[in-house]
Write a structure and sequence with these properties.
Structural class: alpha/beta
Strand content: 5-15%
Largest sheet: 5 strands, parallel
Number of domains: 2
CATH class of the largest domain: Alpha Beta
Radius of gyration: 16 Å
Distance between the termini: 10 Å
């Protein structure tokens, strides 16, 4: 199954990582559950998917606020990333996206634009053998405002030297699609694991 593209001449492809290139969302959720269980924090799966595109630190801060907890953001984030790293050997690419990544490689500038840490994105792409397929990684810490703010996508376009109107964004979350639209970019919605 190859994801169909909207009509148009695009000069750059911008890919979200988790749930878009890497079929990592189920693995990330398992890591979240284990890390948060250690703090007696609940994180329902529907909320996890609804918050797709938010940074790890933002998610922990929101869970602290909503549940009256005082989880140390950096420590919980590290624990979650360590647990995700243990699950990496199970990682696969999202069906239908690898073909678009491989098509763009060497033909169009391409970037990964993610709310995940650079360490997590690099580990996922390395596991899939796709790290060298991208010209640029824009990850949490590279920008101040998370999706649905367009900042991350605009930064990627600027660094690639491509007008935002000439970029095509591949995204699996509502927040990501909103960010692409706010950036003036066309987008492709990648089906979630449940939809696939």
């Amino acid at each position: 199954m190859i994801i169909p593209l909207p009509p148009g001449e695009f000069r750059a492809y911008l890919f979200d990582c988790d749930g878009t290139v890497a079929d990592s969302m189920p693995l990330h959720y398992r890591a979240w559950k284990q890390a948060l269980d250690e703090w007696h924090c609940t994180f329902p799966e529907d909320l996890f998917y609804a918050w797709g595109g938010r940074t790890v630190a933002d998610i922990i801060a929101s869970l602290n606020e909503e549940q009256g907890l005082a989880m140390p953001v950096d420590a919980v984030a590290r624990r979650k990333e360590d647990l995700y790293g243990e699950l990496l050997p199970q990682l696969k690419a999202v069906p239908g996206i690898r073909a678009h990544v491989e098509y763009a490689h060497g033909r169009l500038p391409s970037a990964v634009v993610s709310g995940s840490t650079r360490e997590s994105v690099t580990a996922s792409l390395t596991t899939l053998g796709l790290l060298d397929s991208f010209d640029l990684l824009v990850c949490a810490g590279d920008y101040a405002r998370a999706k649905p703010d367009p900042e991350a996508f605009l930064l990627a376009a600027e660094r690639l030297g491509v007008d935002p109107r000439d970029c095509l964004v591949f995204e699996d979350t509502d927040l990501g699609i909103q960010a692409a639209t706010a950036a003036g970019m066309a987008s492709v919605r990648v089906p979630s694991p449940q939809e696939r």
